[in-house]
Every structure is written in structure tokens, then in C-alpha cells.
Amino acid sequence: MIPPGAQPGPGARPAPRIWRVLGDKRGDNGQVEMIAEALAQHRGWPSELRHLEMRSDYVRGKPRVGPTLYHLDRTRSDALAPPWPDLVLTSGHRPANAALWIKRQSGGRARIVLVGKPSGWMAYFDLVIASAETLLAPFDNVLRIDLPLMRIDPDRLEAGREAWQGGLDALPRPLVAFLVGGPTVPFVYDADVARRLRARMRRVLDEGGTPYLVGSRRTPPGFLRQVANGLPERVGVHDRAESDSENPYTGLLAHADRFVVTGDSISMQVEVARLGKPLEILPLSTGPLGGLDDMRRRLTARLFDAPCDGRMAAVARGLYRLRLVPQTRHFPRFHQMLVDRDLARWAGDETTPRAAPPDTRADMDRILARIDALVAEGAP
To answer: Which of 50, 132, 227, 338 suits a disulfide with 78, CB 3.0-4.6 Å?
Structure first.
């Protein structure tokens, strides 16, 4: 492997200096790591990690969008100092701000590859990689892929398999993992969502199996208790907000026979699908204006899906620049794609999806080709 900035040989292009600028979100980080691994494997280009910690008020709060570092805890974050990178790989609102700051410090020389939806400053990212749930205006710097570049790390999966083998293997089968996220506009976690989760868990119990309920850091306080209340004691429950015990998530990925995932959690759906495990998606309730919001997102999808060189694309870009049609996400569209590709079922449909686990190679080839062009464009 060629060290960053080294001269590999006469006539050969030096390896670019690449930084992975990452925060604490596992799903976002995993997508960047997959690209970095592909660059190392297929181009011989290593990368350096710049891990960022947020100030306490910005762990959940969102800073203003732009080339800023005020939201970072600089004492706990990796140093951001010259020599500046040629290429920055990043994902997420908070790390993206830092990436924009790095680009400014480099005099605009550093190229930014952003995975996911930008919160603003769209034109300042050199490449934006967006999966199917993300609706972006059709600009030339946008590369669309189907599934997010998420997967469970094989070593982490094997560690979970070994750590939880004794505790999970002895449970009555089928072992069905219920993976619960949290509310996101326009979806809510209300009594109807709790009722439908309970009904699906009772079906598992009636079969003689074991439902195992696991929340995330976004799960509303007390929601898992509400769902599990009155169910038999053999129902497994892990609530991050109320338990200091080890999270069984990776153990369940390795050992569970089937998964039911709430519709808000794209990352958990994709990790299950990439393992080729039977996946059911539980659609969520919407708030009072949820139907109107869903219609807005469907119209945005039709508008933003226009080809980059078409008249409709020009209209879409113009409406975006005027802030009349913002970039957004549409989760039901993503769910339907998984069902149509036979990678998932709707909750309650216990037939097994027939498709093989999705492969990232075609999408990764397209990503690497675009990064090649960025590096060549920025080369002296």
C-alpha cells in the first residue's frame, strides 16, 4: 500500500492524502468506511481517521450549516491541522460542517465526498452519494445508488455470535428480533404502533417461539415497557435508556431466525437485508398532517427523479434553489423498493424473501470511478 503523498514510481500519480472525517453515528460511519476500504483495496490509497466529538449541546442539537467547528469538543476530537487532505470522506450534518471548514482552510483544494443528504451548501460538496430513501435535486454532483452502503462488520458479527451463543441458542424457536428505532417526521410512535408490535409478538409466542425486543438511542422512554407490558416473561427486552446490560443487537443479528424492524430505521433494515436474513418492515403511524406530508414527499420524488439533462431537471433545480422544494427523505418509497426486490416483507407476512443478499460491487465501482475523476481534477 502506498503511503499518502508518497511517489509510487516514475510516471505514476502519487496517492492522494485522504481523511475520513467521522462523528459518533455508527450507520453513517460504516458507509464511509466501506468506501475507504474499497479505495485501499482497489486503488492502493490509504486514509487517515479524524474522529470528532461534539459539545454536549450538539450531541442531539443541530449546529447551523456551514464551514464551522464551534459545535465540536476540540479537546476530545482528533486535531484538524495541515497538511490538508486532497480528499475528505464524510457523512452526517455535524461532520459535514467540519469537512466544509477543512475545504476552506485548504483554499478550496480539498475535495469532499459526502454520503447521505446534505443539510445545505449543496454546491460545495464535490460528490454527494444518495441512496433510494434520499430525495436530492438532480445536480451533476449527485450520484444515486439503491441501498445505503451499510453492513455489519464481519468481526463484530462473529464477536456477537460467540458472546451470545449460550444465552440465545437455548431460547425456544423461532427467535424473532424486534428492532425498534424512534420517531422521525412525519412518523410517530403512538398506541397503534405499540399495538401492532404486540400483536406480531403474540403470534411468535403462539408459535412457541421467542420475541426479543431491542430499542435504540432514539426509542421514546417507556415505549418498550408499554409494548412488553402483560406479555409472558420469556419475551426478551433490552431498553438502552433503562438497562446497563450488554446490548444483544449483534448477537441477535447472528442468531435470530427472523427480524421485524420499524420503518424509521433504514440502517437496521439494510444490515439485516445484507445478511440475507428474513426481514419484515413495520410501517409507522403518521401525525395529524402526515398524509399531506407523505403526498409532498411523493411529489418531490417524481420531480427530483428527472434526468440531469432534461427540462424537468432544470425546473427541479430551480425550485430547489428558490427553497420551494427542499431535499428530503421518503421512507415508504425505500420500503417498497425492498419489498419489490424481494429483500423484505411487510410485518405479518411470514413468507421468506427469495432474493440473495444484495451486492455492493456495482454501486462501489461507480463511486470509485467518480472519485477517480475528482482526484484527477484536483491533481497539479
So the answer is: 50
Cell of 158: 462473529
**DSSP-assigned states of every residue in 137-167:** ---TTEEE-SS-S----HHHHHHHHHHHHHH
In the CATH scheme, what architecture does the domain 154-286 have? 3-Layer(aba) Sandwich (3.40)
In single-letter form, the type of residue at position 4 comes to P
User: How is residue 260 written as a grid cell?
Assistant: 421485524
Rounded Cα–Cα distance for residues 103 and 97 (Å): 10
Phi/psi of residue 244, nearest 5 degrees: -95, 0
Grid coordinates representing 138 are 438532480
pLDDT, tens digit, for every residue of 173-193? Answer: 999 999 999 998 888 899 999
Residue 233 phi/psi, 5-degree rounding, is: -65, -20
Long-range contacts, 99-103 (Cβ 8 Å, 24+): 99/21, 100/66, 100/67, 100/68, 100/124, 101/67, 101/68, 101/69, 102/19, 102/21, 103/67
How many CB atoms lie under 10 A from the CB of residue 335?
Answer: 21
Q: Taking 70 as the threshold, does the pLDDT of residue 1 lie above it?
A: no
Give how far Cα 331 sits from Cα of 73, 89, 135, 186, 334, Å.
32, 25, 10, 10, 5
Q: For residue 90, which of 119, 62, 55 has the smallest C-alpha distance?
A: 119
**Could you tell me the end-to-end alpha-carbon distance of the chain, in angstroms, rounded to an integer?**
22
Q: What is the chain's mean pLDDT, rounded?
A: 90
- Phi, psi for 282 (deg, rounded to 5): -100, 105
Topology of domain 18-149+360-378, CATH:
Rossmann fold (3.40.50)
Between helix 26-43 and helix 266-274 the angle, nearest 10°, is: 50
Q: What count of Cα atoms within 13 Å lies in the side-chain half-sphere of residue 232?
A: 13
300: its cell numbers: 418531490
C-alpha cell at 11: 510516471
Decide if 46 contacts 66 (C-beta within 8 A). no
Distances (CA, A) of 321 to 62, 66, 135, 192: 22, 17, 15, 39
The pTM assigned to this predicted structure is 0.85
